[in-house]
Amino acid sequence: MSFVANPNIDPKSLGKVGVLFGGRSAEREISLLSGNGVLAALLARGVDAHGFDPALRPLTDLVAEKFDRVFIALHGRYGEDGTMQGLLEQFGIPYTGSGVLASALAMDKQATKRLWITHDLPTPRFAMLRADTDFAAVVLDLGLPLIVKPAREGSSIGLTKVTAADQMQAAFEKAAALDLDVIAESFIDGDELTCPVVGEGASAEALPVIKIVAPESNYDYQNKYFTDVTQYLCPSGLPPAIEGEVRKLVVDAFRVLGCRGWARADVMLTRDGKPYLLEMNTSPGMTGHSLVPMSARAAGISYEDFVLQVVAQATLELHPNEHWKPE
């Protein structure tokens, strides 16, 4: 697998590495767990790594303390949405994961879906909601059940599965409290899957698919991170042809958005075996319950080696000859 083509990375060659975690988003708690896991892995591999919480320290300290690169373990706004990526471009500090535009696109579920639809990639039908939207018409169009969620949040925060038309107002208000843009999406009845993608462009490749079996199909924030009742199957147990189709689809979705480095796509698989893309996470979780490390292990890559490889690929979108460092 090309992602691990260089397993013997010299930790000293990476210089001083900052692990960005915490931050100001609704996913701060999970980011702290992810970041501490990443930091411990880098230290275990002998990397000069340091934790850095942007909510507690001025970002100019990244320059003042002469970080050579950073691992972005921030989730959600101000870390996964292109804003931090743009700042790091200005600072000239290479970072992990997707660049400014791809990060912003992937964070915005509406923009992501419109781009996928343009490229004929399957994703559930949707409608954008406002306070004056005719919710009854949306229900009639998309059918029940349906999903209502903020357009720019992760970890299922603010999400409601609507099973009756009279639930729409409360579902909208819950999501609107977190984001100005609220999206309603057709519910896909079937298996919930997730699949990491690593690399960039033509070299991008999918890691093994994970099948998620949550209690009563309720894969919410609590069941994602704080319980042990959800089952994760990797190998997925899917027929090889379907697993291959899912892996190809998520690589196509990754490339269409212009992602690089690493990401994780969430997919629903209908009862008759048709996959639908839900979203692309460009700074996936790296906690004890997280799925990218699980998939990597199934591919023979340890947590520590995966983290080391990701940080070794930290880069900037500018051409290397255009990199500028403040004096």
Search tags:
globular, six-stranded antiparallel beta sheet, four-stranded antiparallel beta sheet, 327 residues, alpha+beta, single chain, Dna Ligase, domain 1, Rossmann fold
Structure, described:
With 327 residues, the protein is α+β, with helices and mostly antiparallel strands. It folds into three domains: 2-97, Rossmann fold; 105-122 and 189-309, ATP-grasp fold, B domain (D-amino Acid Aminotransferase, Chain A, domain 1); 126-186, Dna Ligase, domain 1 (2-Layer Sandwich), CATH 3.30.1490. The protein is 32% helix and 21% strand. Strand 8 (190-200) and strand 9 (205-206) form a beta hairpin. Helix 1 packs across helix 11 (303-312). The longest helix is centred in the C-terminal third of the chain and has 18 residues, at 240-257. Belongs to the D-alanine--D-alanine ligase family. Residues 113-312 form the ATP-grasp domain. Pfam families: Dala_Dala_lig_C (PF07478), Dala_Dala_lig_N (PF01820). Keywords: ATP-binding, Cell shape, Cell wall biogenesis/degradation, Cytoplasm, Ligase, Manganese, Nucleotide-binding, Peptidoglycan synthesis.
Task: Provide a quick synopsis of the model.
With 327 residues, the chain is α+β, with helices and mostly antiparallel strands.
DSSP strand tally: 13
Q: If you average the pLDDT, what whole number results? A: 92
Q: Which class of the largest domain in CATH terms?
A: Alpha Beta
Straight-line N-to-C gap? 40 Å
| Major sheet size, sense and barrel closure | 6 strands, antiparallel
CATH domain topology of the largest domain: D-amino Acid Aminotransferase, Chain A, domain 1
N-to-C order of helices and strands: EHEHEHHHEHEEHEEEEHEHEEHH
Q: Which structural category do the helix and sheet elements fall into?
A: alpha+beta
Q: Which descriptor suits the 3D outline?
A: globular
> Which stretches of 5+ consecutive residues score pLDDT under 50?
none
Rg calculated over all Cα atoms: 19 Å
CATH superfamily of the largest domain: ATP-grasp fold, B domain
Number of domains: 3
Roughly what fraction of the amino acids lie in strands? 15-25%
Helicity level: 25-40%
> Given the structure, what is the number of helices?
11
- Under the CATH scheme, the architecture of the largest domain is 2-Layer Sandwich
